[in-house]
Amino acid sequence: PIEVFRKDYQPLPYKVDTIELDIQLEPRKTTITTQMTIISSSPTVTLDGDRSVIELQHVLLNGTLLQEGTDYQVTASELTLLQVPLHTPFQLTIQVTTIPEDNTELSGLYQDSSGMYCTQMEAMGFRRFTYMADRPDQMATFSKVRIEADKEQYPVLLSNGNLLEQGSCNDNNNRHYAIWQDPFPKPTYLFAMVAGNLGKIQDEYTTKSGRRVDLQIFAEPHQTHLLHYAMLSLKRAMQWDEDRYGLEYDLDLYNIVAVDSFNMGAMENKGLNVFNTAYVLADPATATDTDFERVESVIGHEYFHNWTGNRVTCRDWFQLTLKEGLTVFRDQEFSADMNSAAVNRIENVRALRGRQFAEDAGPMAHPIRPESYISMDNFYTATVYSKGAEVIRMYQTILGVEGFNQGLKLYLERHDGQAVTCDDFLQAMADANPDIDLTLFRRWYSTPGTPVVKYRGEWNEDGTYQLQLEQETSDGEPLHIPVAVGLLDQATGEEVVSTQVLNLKESQQTFTFSDLAGPVVPSILRTFSAPVKLVPLEKDNESLALAFLAAHDTDGFNRWEAVQRLYTSLIFQHLPSKEESSSSSWNYVEQAFARTLDTCLDNSDYSISAYVLTLPSESTLAEEMDMIDPIGLHQARSTVKQQLARRFESVLMEKYSALTELLSQTKELKFDATSIGLRRLRNVLLDYLCSLTDTPEERDRAAQLAMNHYQAATGMTDQMAGLSSLVSIDTPHRQDALDQFYQQAVGNSLVLNKWFTVQALANTPNSLETIQQLYQHPDFTLKNPNRVRALVGAFTMNAVAFHQPAGYQFLGDVLLAVDALNPQLSSRLASPLIQWRKYVTGKLMKEQLERLLAQPKLSDDLYEITDKLA
Ligand code: B3K
Ligand code: ZN
């Protein structure tokens, strides 16, 4: 395997100006003819191409057939032309053949399980399609893309841009063709084509300057009724980008295609997004509220890429966060505006802590702009995406919304049509905001690891309050950290200093607040203003202060955060290694829980209440530990959950019933923030109530409740909540409900995935056996990444099933099987082993890594991950 370094970037010595593609789809033999106009300043031209999937047929230069050996050379990954005209444009024609039916990696041109042909080119799939300079700074105009296929089997033929022409083939009436043209130059990774038997829904959108855009979303014909929410989300996203950033769509057509076998969430190909079905298909009967939220955000994300990614793209793949961090930030702001900003922030931070913090603390830690890679596909990480989005958010926090918007405007104007770097982005932000110094801020792009910010406050009798902040970073040098702070009066709980942003730029800095009437309690890092860990320098009164913030903080995020911290310390006291637990911890939690529960129906922030009542996840808790005992942690968390359930059983039941009543008042299922919040809250209460299963009577009661919940459910959210509770209870209802759900899933692959997941997550002593049986189930297949994630991905989150010798062994077996088919998928599935050093069972986890490394035929993707880990 070859490691590529950021510092080695070199511009290409030639440029491909225009490309014409002719794609002939025939069973087990696709022929691709590429014609390009090239101008070169070097006598040799080297193109990328993967000989393991494409077979070179011939090469012509200005119409003359070239000879292998004398005119060109081919290696496993390159085609080199040995003598090309200098500084004058020449025509290169290359013909290759390939068998998309055999492409199980789902990169390049492949066939979906439904039979349609589709492409995934990012990051380096184009070289698995034909020979070309397959890198993002090579932007060419795809002036003509002709696709030809069997008319009956593949009635729909799509590519980027505008449809120029379509019709039957003269020489063969069973075949037809379509010709597409994309007026915008683009890198290879944004090329796409699709051929299939697809149904669609259509709509239109008129941009603020009057461009009429046709919107089409395609899926398998029996699924088109599931596309309406995606269409609604698309129109909202188009409107929002105009309103918020003045950005309009730039073609007359916007196409989206839903594909069942897809490695990632979706792909922003110019004018032709390709989506994983899981992020585009949704209706109340088959999708949960979270699925709906995800459809909205991914539809938004891919749409927003049209400006941040497509119009302005990355110079090289090390700059990936330039488009991904920025676009995730944009989709987060979109979701925040469409739903609830506070809820959205909590969800995003939960995700960041659960995944990115672990990545940053382990051997795969990398800056948001990595320095090297073996397989670029391994760097589509939580760090590049989620931490990258936090870095963009910090610009906005430091510059203010107006300053940030000016910077973004300048960036897009200055670099429209270019492939640029993170430095260019920072420069635009700096130039648009000359009064603010961003010099130190640059270090966020090169510093891995989660910084720790420590604080200590001191109240003085002269009415001043001094807040001392310290920072620890992975290289010991300071970062520019915006710390949003507010102060609350200790006596009244009222906010006396509203949120202001302190710019922490040194290792240690003291900030003074004056004219205060009395002692104050600080609320620090409001709305999580920087991706750091916040810890007090003195632990003494921490819980007291947290309890105060839990009750009084005006910042919704920090109120939630305070309660989370209280839960965390209580849960940690129940770890097997801890001998004592303090009653004060329990009292603080009890108070905060009681207050939230008592008032949870008084205002419409149901989702916030739901999240406040939810204990931190095992992965978030694990992040706070030096040594992780996963089973002990799982039990400690369960114990606290049961204690709370027992202590508050009657109130939980009372609120549960009240919510049931509220929800039953509206007949039709609604998906506004309030309705989602009501369901979310009721399902959290259900989860507590169903955790009480110590005695046979309790078990019966819990099973009955869960079964009723499941059967009375009006949509997938409640159905899944009922079923999730039920599968963890030892009751005959369990199998009945699962069988019933299976019947319901027939014909819907996404619902079937839920059937696998709910069982893989079940909290039962023999869950591993169940999972291994499901692995043999006729509906299980390694060829569909969604199915694999539904079972195996979920399995690795089930502590009891996964963290045992047989569990690790099972993951090792699966990784080997998957790696032979789909390396992108296998390397992602390996990430639960990432922090083995921190686990008490680490030795056993490492054994699996070593076992993988000993394999002769490991993919580069999985090799890179396992080698770094082991
Ligand atoms: N840009 C794609 C990711 C492609 C992944 C390649 N392994 C999805 C997105 O972030 O929008
Ligand atoms: Zn993206």
UniProtKB/TrEMBL annotation:
Protein name as it appears in the record: Aminopeptidase N
Domain Peptidase M1 alanyl aminopeptidase Ig-like fold: 449-534
Positions spanned in the full protein: 72 to 941 of 1120
Family as reported in the entry's similarity comment: Belongs to the peptidase M1 family.
Record lineage: Eukaryota, Sar, Stramenopiles, Ochrophyta, Bacillariophyta
An example molecular function term from Gene Ontology annotations: alanyl aminopeptidase activity
Start and end residues of each Peptidase M1 membrane alanine aminopeptidase domain: 229-437
Every Aminopeptidase N-like N-terminal domain range: 19-190
Domain of life per record: Eukaryota
Cofactor(s) it depends on: Zn(2+)
Keywords, alphabetical: Aminopeptidase, Hydrolase, Metal-binding, Metalloprotease, Protease, Signal, Zinc
Domain Peptidase M1 alanyl aminopeptidase C-terminal: 545-869
The protein's Enzyme Commission number: 3.4.11.2
One biological process term in Gene Ontology: proteolysis
